[in-house]
């Protein structure tokens, strides 16, 4: 007995050691993945002169202000190879430019105007990111397309899983084969079709196709879940007088809520981050989505890293909130097709 007890304790120690090593590796990987996000959030809260410093400042410092001729202004610091250079704005110029006075050392709380002789003109572009407008456009496209994909893909998946009709297997294979078709192949024909319908510069090309079950992956995912539900439940409902729609809406649909939630989450993410579709079909700046707005903002403020990080953080926050709320559906969605059916 003592030998068995010693062997059991040894195995338990080995399991605990292996578990500790696994947790340590996972923690290290999580930290490495989170570092870029933390850097992005930290940079978005900094002033431009505090980004490129000798050491990384993870916690942004408060903007330093000094008094010049009785007026409080911002103090900017630029890191150079021979030392830091400070500057204060002294005059606003047309076309979003400003004249700054260059100082050779960090001043005290009050700056003597006699030391403000060396000046230079720099760009002073204010950010032009119409977040509320882009958010409204993105939400409109995302919600309409999400509803369409959930409804159409659920109905088509039910038909392939439960209804009997000639050519069902062949049609399902054809549907799955469309997953191997690159999107670039249909890009030009679809564009010509939507232009001929007068849908260019509208949300219709980005929302209407979602109501025709154009995602073969979502149909396959839902079909596999439907196949995992016993057929006896359908037969019992039909004995009670339920039609096919009654079987779908009252018997099966409540049981496939996890799969429907998974499809909704993936659809939300895909349309929220969609860049190519709005870029092709939306030419009006007032119809831009967040992805297009962020791209245009990057072109206007390519050197303003803090503004780019702030805009990217704002665009990413809804996805982070969605992941925090529906994390278990993300995980379940990966294994649904392997467990069910």
Helices and strands, with pairings:
Elements: H1 2-44, E1 65-68, E2 71-74, E3 76-80, E4 83-93, E5 97-103, E6 110-111, E7 119-123, H2 131-162, H3 168-177, H4 183-196, H5 204-207, H6 216-227, H7 231-239, H8 244-252, H9 257-272, H10 276-281, H11 290-300, H12 305-325, H13 327-339
Parallel strand pairs: 1-6
Antiparallel strand pairs: 1-2, 3-4, 4-5, 5-7
- In angstroms, what is the radius of gyration? 29 Å
* Tally of separate helices: 13
Number of strand elements: 7
Strand order across the largest sheet: 3-4-5-7
Summed up, the domain count is: 3
- CATH topological fold name of the largest domain: MetI-like fold
Low-pLDDT regions: 79-83, 108-126, 337-341
Strand content: 5-15%
**How confident is the prediction overall: mean pLDDT?**
77
> Which class of secondary structure composition applies to the elements?
alpha+beta
Provide structural commentary:
The chain has 341 residues and is of the alpha+beta class. It has three domains: 1-44; 49-123, no CATH class; 131-339, MetI-like fold. 59% of the residues lie in helices and 11% in strands. The protein is built from 13 helices and seven strands. The protein has helices at 2-44, 131-162, 168-177, 183-196, 204-207, 216-227, 231-239, 244-252, 257-272, 276-281, 290-300, 305-325, 327-339; strands at 65-68, 71-74, 76-80, 83-93, 97-103, 110-111, 119-123. The strands form two sheets. A four-stranded antiparallel β-sheet has the order 3-4-5-7, with no helix packed on it. Strands 2-1-6 form a three-stranded mixed β-sheet, with no helix packed on it. The longest helix has 43 residues, at 2-44. It is flat, with a radius of gyration of 29 Å. The model is unreliable at 79-83, 108-126 and 337-341 (pLDDT under 50).
